[in-house]
Amino acid sequence: MNIKVSLPEKRANKKRNIFKTSQPGESQTSGYNSYLYIHRALENARIRMGRFFKRNQLLGRKGAIGCVSLEISQRCNLDCSLCYLSESSSKVRDMPIEELYKRLDMILNTYGPGTNVQVSGGEPTLREKDELLAIVRYARRIGLNPALFTNGIKCSRVLLEELSEAGLSDVAFHVDLTQKRSDHKTEKELNGLRMELMEMARGLPLLVVFNTTVHESNFEEVPELVKFFIENSDVVGMASFQLQADTGRGTLHQRPQLISLQSVQDKISQGAGNVLPWDTILIGHPKCHTYVPAFATNGKAFGIIDDELIFSDFLRDFSNVTHDRREGPAKIAWTYFKKGIRHPKWIIRALTYFLPRMWKMKKDILLGKGRVNKISFFIQNFMDKDNLDSERIDACSFMVMTKDGPISMCKHNANRDDYILQPIEISEGTERKTFYPLAPNNGSQSTQIEPETLLNC
């Protein structure tokens, strides 16, 4: 990746663009059907959460699921030491795009409009660009929020612009030492690459996420990495940390005892310069994920909400408010403000809550010359393949869509070949054909169908 960037010049010239195509709400689903989808999906989520459906639980209130992964290729152009793919993955052919459209429909029917979809793999950018664009365009058309999860090797400014035009909501770059890129020995040495990827996405209407796998070699670097993301929070909207797990074809296996949900929370808080409120917001099972939205200023991060009661009441009164992340923070804030006007008590309550906290931040806001950005921190605690907890799987907020329906990501990774090697029945006009992920000895072949042809069906 040879991107020549003059940072001050680029930052001055790249403004956030709000594209005219693929506008929010451009969905084929009717309002009536959308209501039925969402109502049913939320009810199913509340049942699934069981004893974890508490007043500060997002699932069952704000959404039916955290996100669903749509794996559009099992191929990858890296060989990570903590890879979750199987030994068979490199031999698996890309499934027909018709099947991917079908799985997007299944996501919509299961979890409703507005569901976050990870367009992932393997490495999703290894598919033909026209197909990748068609997948994102179709997801947006039916009312889903597509995100690209990539290592960034095949990304370019042009590709991200085209994906944004097609309706992409987020781009998540995975960069860390497990990928064995070049001869980098520390995470700090990879910050130059991270900066290149940031500049590639700067100004586009995308939530920019960086994924980092936490393992023994980079555990002590987490605070400095957090500081780096805070310093660049004018572009980075979320920093996500995945804990090492023994699953897939990687050469590293079970993580050492020093790496845990609590210890990584402490490391992130250390880098933020504040103890972050990790328990205020629940997403699924509390052992699986923790999430903190924060204000960033003067190299520090401050948790936006640390009062469970206020957050719970906010969910109760505002869970039906929808917005599109591509609209930008000002418009999103305006959406909630208009809703707040209908609840005057919330205007007073918000002022009473935030003003004292902003006052405590005043020194950092002044030192930061009034620049305050929003950044979120997320921790994903994957399970080892031989130590799956059925209760956590039942309350999972991170699913993979298979031909037979959604499966918990941890369960899917533990038994990946059971899902990716299954033959798939597809339609071509009035004919039914079988796609074999591994080319069979008899030479049976699946027929590739043009993505635009299917979109126009």
Total number of domains: 1
CATH topology: TIM Barrel
The computed structural class is alpha/beta
- Beta fraction: 15-25%
The percent of residues in helical segments reads 25-40%
What would CATH call the class?
Answer: Alpha Beta
What distance lies between the first and last C-alpha atoms, to the nearest angstrom?
38 Å
Number of strands: 13
Q: Order of strands in the sheet with the most strands?
A: 8-7-9-6-5-4-3-2-1-10-11
Number of helices: 16
The largest β sheet comes out as: 11 strands, mixed
Overall geometry comes to globular
For the CA atoms, what is the radius of gyration? 22 Å
Global mean pLDDT:
89
Secondary-structure element order, N to C? HHEHEHEHEHEHEHEEHHHHEHEEHHEEH
Low-confidence segments, given as residue ranges, are: 1-30, 442-457
In the CATH hierarchy, the architecture is Alpha-Beta Barrel
Name the features.
457 residues; 16 helices; globular; alpha/beta; disordered N terminus; eleven-stranded mixed β-sheet
Task: Please describe what this structure looks like.
- With 457 residues, this protein is an alpha/beta fold.
- The chain has one domain (22-309, 374-455): TIM Barrel (Alpha-Beta Barrel).
- It has 16 helices and 13 strands.
- It has helices spanning 7-13, 31-49, 97-111, 129-141, 157-166, 191-201, 222-231, 261-272, 308-318, 329-341, 344-360, 362-367, 390-394, 409-414, 416-420, 451-455, and strands at residues 67-71, 116-120, 145-150, 170-174, 207-214, 236-243, 289-297, 300-303, 373-380, 398-402, 405-408, 424-428, 431-435.
- Helix 2 (31-49) crosses helix 3 (97-111) and helix 3 runs parallel beside helix 4 (129-141).
- The model is unreliable at 1-30 and 442-457 (pLDDT under 50).
